[in-house]
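In this supplementary section we document a worked example of the pipeline. Step one takes a protein sequence of length 413 as its only input; no multiple sequence alignment statistics are reported here. Step two produces a three-dimensional model, which step three serialises into structure tokens for compact storage. The input and output of this example are shown verbatim.
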Amino acid sequence: MNFVDFKESTSMALATLLSNKLRAGLTILGVTVGVVTVLSMVSIIQGLNKTFSEQIESLGSNAIWVTKFDPSFGKPPGQEERQRKELTIEDADAIRDDIATIADVSPIQREISVTVRFRDKQATPVMLGCTSHYEFTQSQYVGYGRFINDLDQQERSNVAVVGRDLVKALFPNNEDPIGAEIKLDGNPFRIVGVMSILGSFFGQSRDNIIFIPLTTAQKYYPKIEAPQTIFAIIIRPKSRAVVKQTIDDISDLLRRRRQVPLGEKNNFGVSSQDALLDIYNQLTGATYLVLTAISAVALMIGGIGVMNIMLVSVTERTKEIGIRKAVGATKASILSQFMIEALVLTGIGGILGLVIGEIMSFLINTYSPLPAFIPLWAILVGILVSAGVGIVFGLYPAWHAANLNPIDALRYE
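The serialised model returned by step three reads:
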């Protein structure tokens, strides 16, 4: 088929669509709904993935976490996990001293809710007992003042580093909190530093927090962890390239220290950013599969609508096709005419779907708790999918029209 025939087929296809605006509009609507459904599902899935990845990365640069519990999301520890031996400060020291791929180690105490008072103001932040190594291992630094140091740890000092939300609650008049004496569950503490803005983690503000020396936390809250025991150990490897090796080395070391028999599972949990992402993907994989199937069904319904309308169009124009064939129109020109009609219908539907999908993504981000994000590849996929629907569901009607017998077509009434 030459360019002149293609141009003629294109003009005839467009003229036919313009002469049947309502039918063409309803067909376009079906494709638009399918594409919007696909993009909405993709934007929510990608938004959740992107948010989860960012939240995990915000916990620390390539950080590794060690606890006595197996890593999980939303699942409470089982009876066997709760009865495991506690981790100790000596475990953290051994990891720091014996593993060459580690940059730093920070033992921490469990976060607990506490009551903090300053004059007539009161707040209920979470309290975390930690050491001077916490800043570097978690990549979370003080905004001004100083962080907990080794002397504070040795002397079990009553000093505190506070988050920005706590500063706003206790010092609403922009008073300098450094040096102020506060009461933490009735015990006097002196503020020595204010953290930089830490943001939130899955909707929970990390700025509503107060840090105190680990040894001081063990002094005032002995029931939280037994003496010399800790809730978790945070490890920062020297680089991302050695994360897996570091995890293996930590596991070997703790198995020896905790006397785990050969062949038995670990009685502790070791996780990293990548491991947590793997667990997340395993938990959400089935949900994403269902969402993808729903969007595929919606797109297929739009495609069936295109095929139905095209078959109706072929039936209505059977005599016209016969006349065109009688005056010399080739199968290729007839085929191209109907394929162009199908592609125009799905193309317009795809573009409208992309525009509406972007608007919906913005609205979901703005007015709902769900994150939404449409990556560039999803936009390209939307364009290709809409074109693919036109080709797949327009091919049979176009082939049927191209293969009509001209004599039978001319006799059709």
